[in-house]
Amino acid sequence: MIPQEKLQSIVDHHRDIEARMAEIGGGGDEFIRLSKEYAELAPVIAAIADYSSCLGEISDLEELIAEPEMRELAEAELAELRQRLPGLEHALRVQLLPADTADRKNAILELRAGTGGDEAALFAGDLLRMYQRYAEFKGWKMETMQISDTDLGGVKEAQILVSGRGVFARLKYESGVHRVQRVPE
């Protein structure tokens, strides 16, 4: 169970930021800083709202169980909410983890075809297209810094600058060797 005082302090801080932004009005460095902090807290506030709402509904249903005519319906809903609660609590705990300061930064994605000749270069090209589609899906911008293509449409080597919101947070674990092995017929 997450302490309600901690959650309430986060909600109060979010409201305080909103009030300070309203006082300042649009523009200025302070307003920009507050806007960023406000936007970063939005997913946490949403997770707190979902979690608190579920807890409130559970409390209300526990009171309804005392009434005989509502008992069966309340017990069915209560069981469903109690199953959802651990997932909501986990999602909230993840949101409450401190963010890595590098998570907001951009990333340079490097791909190199390993041993395997044209097959390895084709696979590296497939990986590059996969990352490009993922970047498009996330709304990120990809800028080719350097690329070395093959005649068959593969990629020997590529360096791509990926910029946008949360790029490094998503891509920082994309490292290592990827290998494809094709089995002849």
Describe the structure.
This protein is of the alpha+beta class. The chain contains five helices and three strands; from the N terminus they run H-H-H-E-H-E-E-H. It has helices at residues 4-24, 29-64, 71-96, 118-138, 167-171, and strands spanning 107-112, 141-149, 155-163. The chain has a three-stranded antiparallel beta sheet with strand order 1-3-2.
Key terms:
single chain; 185 residues; alpha+beta; three-stranded antiparallel sheet; 59% helix; 13% strand; flat
The amount of helix comes to: 55-70%
Task: Count up the helices.
Answer: 5
Secondary-structure element pattern, one letter each: HHHEHEEH
Strand content: 5-15%
For the termini, the CA-CA separation is 56 Å
